[in-house]
Amino acid sequence: MTAVSSARESLSHALNNRFLPNLEYLLQGSILDSAVEHLIHRLKGLCDNVDTSPETFNDLEVCMSLRQPNPNSNQPLLLRVRRALDRDAPFQMRYLGQPEVDQRRPTLVRSCMDCASTNGILEFLTEMGFRLEFEYIAKGYMFRKGRMKITVSKLVKIVPGKQQDMSNEPISQSYIVELSVVAPTGQENVGEEMRVFAEQLKPLVQLEKIDYKRLGGLP
Length: 219
What we know:
This protein has an eight-stranded antiparallel β-barrel. The chain contains five helices and eight strands, in the order αβαββββαβββαα. A hairpin with a 2-residue loop joins strand 6 and strand 7. The protein is 22% helix and 37% strand. The protein is globular and about 45 Å long. By secondary structure, it is an alpha+beta fold.
């Protein structure tokens, strides 16, 4: 009981003092398949552990939604569940809030909560009333630069019975590039650090804050 009480006290202290990393700062862009090797080479030179190969990933990501009981709310609750296809690792569940696009900030900002979960999480969410929105495979490379994380991902459509096959229908002929930091509230200097790093990737890739609300209004 002492350990449990200590953990609860630590969590309460973190929340009260805004130590809990609950905001994601994000910049996104894309690069053609034909140019991705040049970007990988650039990132190897800029990021930590340049003497080793970048970390690779091959993950299935599932987005689940739950309609809100409040009739005044048009936005469903969305949860993302990710699991590794190439190694034995816990499932990862993530909540992402609505993005905040502030012209004074160099990055998009959204609330974010991550936690590890057991392999029965999708069945549990389905029993709670969540429904599948979409799913895809993301395969690529991950780099670190201090507290910044950079991923270069190829997105692949799900074909029933062939989740492990990377040759299945890529969504596009390009890779998604994301630069992100998860940090506590109030660390506004994070955005400037990311902007400076993103400048070093030009002209190979243009990382921007994307306004999803504006994209949703396109025909």
